[in-house]
Design brief:
Elements: E1 2-6, E2 9-14, E3 17-20, H1 26-30, H2 35-44, E4 65-70, H3 74-83, H4 90-98, E5 103-108, E6 113-114, E7 119-120, E8 129-130, E9 133-139, E10 145-153, E11 155-156, H5 157-162, H6 167-171, E12 177-184, E13 195-202, E14 205-213, H7 221-228, E15 238-241, E16 259-264, E17 268-274
Helix pairs in contact: 3-4
Length: 275
Amino acid sequence: MKLFLTSVGPVVEEHGRHYAVADEPWDALVRRDDLLRHLRARVGDGHFPPAEAPAKPLAPIGSQEVWAAGVTYLRSKLARMEESSDSGGGSFYDKGYSADRPGLFFKGTPHRVVGPGGRVRIRADSKWNVPEPELTLLLGPAGRIIGYTVGNDMSSRDIEGENPLYLPQAKVYDGSCALGPAVLVAEEPLPKSTEIRLEILRGGQRAFAGTTALSQMKRDLAELAGWLFRDSSFPNGCYLLTGTGIVPPDSFTLQPGDEVRITIEPIGTLSNVVA
């Protein structure tokens, strides 16, 4: 089952049919740890009226904070070590990859998040920028994984590489995160074979493409969620981007007008243009 957010409220898709979620705002849905059972019951008893398929879904976010996990893939660890070699910060990423405690950082508030078709941004004071395609967890107030979506953790590699203490500036700014197109609400965890695909188009031509799979992730998804909820509360739930295993070559940087497409089946494709 998929859950979309539209300009008129949440919409559920099940078996190719769409239903308007009546009288329940987004935050109220996220607060339900029994979200899948609740939605199925409401669809089954006819409480949700039929609706059109959302032509322009919004970012599936209400008042949730967005957090992210770093160096959860070997490819990401190696890239971070290379970009920070001049600053002497490479060992931080090596140790962070192998440590019991994962590297978690605050990514953004809802107003910094864009949805499908929205414009992600590159910082004006950065010259080396990449998208980071990531499976993203929707976590309920109790820390339980209640859904999955596609995330783009935009990153200024030169700023982070200059000094690891600059990570917040490299990661947190207006238009630095995209989520969507929908939240997949499922009973079972996504299989390890699930692929994450990235394609970047420039002038209609492919400038870069890459693929990874959840099997390449060092950390367990539930483990990451558990660490995030240690001594932190999220009354309306939160999002957690789980790291990237796709890193373009050092010679590549995003340019205004590039289109970034991230696909995770069965969630869908998140497409954004770089402002």
